[in-house]
Write a structure and sequence with these properties.
mainly beta; 4-stranded antiparallel beta sheet; 11 strands; 0% helix; globular
Length: 123
């Protein structure tokens, strides 16, 4: 299984920005999916953004479209989530996930998960 380690979380004021990073444990040569999910306190985990490593195809959940950007650096084995115009509702634990297929609605297709990094947006 691919090991994933997230970093970059923290506390930021509403309207601010953060960039999350997730390092994966091995080179990914085939078209592989890397994704970000999040789970707010008392809520179910939800998909945020995904990217296929070879062709760069991305997908975003509606609440983050236009504010978040997912990207992947093959040389650094790292996937990023740039989060701009952060809102109070973005407060959550953010998880990095990987798998052969991307899905933002069916998390069971994701095969590996990181331990998460906390993002807190304050007013």
């Amino acid at each position: 299984r691919v090991q994933l380690v997230e970093s970059g979380g923290g506390t930021v004021q509403a309207g601010g920005s953060l960039r999350l990073s997730c390092v994966h444990s091995e080179d990914i040569y085939s078209n592989y999916c890397l994704a970000w999910y999040r789970q707010a306190s008392g809520k179910a985990r939800e998909g945020v953004a995904s990217i296929y490593t070879t062709d760069g195809t991305t997908r975003y959940a509606d609440p983050v479209k236009g504010r978040f950007t997912i990207s992947h650096d093959n040389a650094k084995n790292t996937v990023y989530l740039q989060m701009n115009s952060l809102q109070l509702d973005d407060t959550a634990m953010y998880y990095c996930a990987s798998g052969l297929v991307c899905s933002l609605v069916l998390e069971s297709v994701m095969q590996s998960w990181g331990n998460g990094t906390q993002v807190t947006v304050s007013s």
